[in-house]
């Protein structure tokens, strides 16, 4: 037993145990890929949201900001929500048939649709993290049970219960358990972190949409009184 390393245990493990370990390694790899990609996405979205809000409140008019957004080809985050609202606003103004309240409601619907799309994009991949975090321990547990069962079968076949007989199977089982936890723990932590980040960005999007609707509402009221 002293000559056995972890690599030796894995190489000498049963086929089913190797399949379990391979699945857990693959799940861990997918988990870390999602974690790094989502981390980059949230960092980019938070930075772009700050910059866009600074431009939005800089004192310029909505038309100039819209032209700037189109020129820079900004198609995500607050820029996407703003574009959806402004384009619907100009459509309503061009038609001129609807009452101001109906125009505002139409703008609100378009911004809400854009907001939902942006939130859905932020949530992409989180279901995968939740699945890995919830199932990996059970997959590892399955490998653990299989290893212990193999150890007892070995004892029964040899009709003796020495440490040398039991230890490899138990060690194989513990490796499966450890690998299951290694895959699950980062996935669960990342899922909770990104879920809170999504909620924060969703609140930010909602607040921006309400502020823009307030500006448009004031403009419609002013035009009606003029």
From TrEMBL:
<keyword id="KW-0997">Cell inner membrane</keyword>
<keyword id="KW-0132">Cell division</keyword>
<feature type="transmembrane region" description="Helical">
    <location>
        <begin position="138"/>
        <end position="157"/>
    </location>
</feature>
<dbReference type="GO" id="GO:0005886">
    <property type="term" value="C:plasma membrane"/>
</dbReference>
<keyword id="KW-0812">Transmembrane</keyword>
<dbReference type="GO" id="GO:0051301">
    <property type="term" value="P:cell division"/>
</dbReference>
<comment type="similarity">
    <text>Belongs to the ExbB/TolQ family.</text>
</comment>
<feature type="transmembrane region" description="Helical">
    <location>
        <begin position="15"/>
        <end position="35"/>
    </location>
</feature>
<dbReference type="InterPro" id="IPR002898">
    <property type="entry name" value="MotA_ExbB_proton_chnl"/>
</dbReference>
<dbReference type="GO" id="GO:0017038">
    <property type="term" value="P:protein import"/>
</dbReference>
<keyword id="KW-0472">Membrane</keyword>
<feature type="domain" description="MotA/TolQ/ExbB proton channel">
    <location>
        <begin position="78"/>
        <end position="205"/>
    </location>
</feature>
<dbReference type="Pfam" id="PF01618">
    <property type="entry name" value="MotA_ExbB"/>
</dbReference>
<comment type="function">
    <text>Part of the Tol-Pal system, which plays a role in outer membrane invagination during cell division and is important for maintaining outer membrane integrity.</text>
</comment>
<keyword id="KW-1003">Cell membrane</keyword>
<dbReference type="GO" id="GO:0043213">
    <property type="term" value="P:bacteriocin transport"/>
</dbReference>
<comment type="subunit">
    <text>The Tol-Pal system is composed of five core proteins: the inner membrane proteins TolA, TolQ and TolR, the periplasmic protein TolB and the outer membrane protein Pal. They form a network linking the inner and outer membranes and the peptidoglycan layer.</text>
</comment>
<feature type="transmembrane region" description="Helical">
    <location>
        <begin position="169"/>
        <end position="194"/>
    </location>
</feature>
<keyword id="KW-0131">Cell cycle</keyword>
<dbReference type="InterPro" id="IPR050790">
    <property type="entry name" value="ExbB/TolQ_transport"/>
</dbReference>
<protein>
    <recommendedName>
        <fullName>Tol-Pal system protein TolQ</fullName>
    </recommendedName>
</protein>
<dbReference type="InterPro" id="IPR014163">
    <property type="entry name" value="Tol-Pal_TolQ"/>
</dbReference>
<keyword id="KW-1133">Transmembrane helix</keyword>
